[in-house]
């Protein structure tokens, strides 16, 4: 396991590395996996990630009457939850969030990483007008160098979202990316299903998964 001591332990939430999760990772990491298998298996991992992320959000008491006339002392979210996907790869997580929270709203941030400089360029954001009073699940499958995540967090901050209210949900994280995010935003929580060994010279994670967006949306090779 890579050394993640550079990130505050309470702010990094790694899914339990169960046999089931490793079996799912075996499918999506296989370069010969069919796209349908890649998409369907990714969705299963996204559901696990979102369950963990939602459990981190604050709640408040709520009592309801059961069908047999008894009182159940339950809980409900303390504030609205908003998903914000980093286009386009982050859009792959949206369907699972909508299935779990049908009334949640989804914002978009469009950033594109320069293939030479590896730096993100901001193009567009469409966010709910009251996002500053919401808990935000920032959705992007890959946390590699951390540049895109930092740019997205900056956009959210410019719209009034506090770091404490951001949970960054991703499939794979690199030690370098985790360190980069928490160096500037130590209170942003990260939920991931795997911490990779390192980045290679092309800023791809090792052992990695390749270009997630291309594989998920089928733009990695001709028909």
TrEMBL record:
GO MF annotation: an example: GTP binding
EC number assigned by the record: 2.4.2.9
Pathway assigned to this chain's UniProt record: Pyrimidine metabolism; UMP biosynthesis via salvage pathway; UMP from uracil: step 1/1
The keyword Glycosyltransferase is assigned to this record: yes
EC category: transferase
The Phosphoribosyltransferase domain, residue ranges: 16-219
Keywords: Allosteric enzyme, Glycosyltransferase, GTP-binding, Nucleotide-binding, Transferase
InterPro entries for this protein: PRTase-like, PRTase_dom
Coiled coil stretches, renumbered: none
Pfam family, one: UPRTase
Superkingdom to which the source organism belongs: Bacteria
Cofactor(s) needed: Mg(2+)
Similarity section: Belongs to the UPRTase family.
Protein name per Swiss-Prot or TrEMBL: uracil phosphoribosyltransferase
Organism annotation: Micromonospora sp. CCTCC AA 2012012
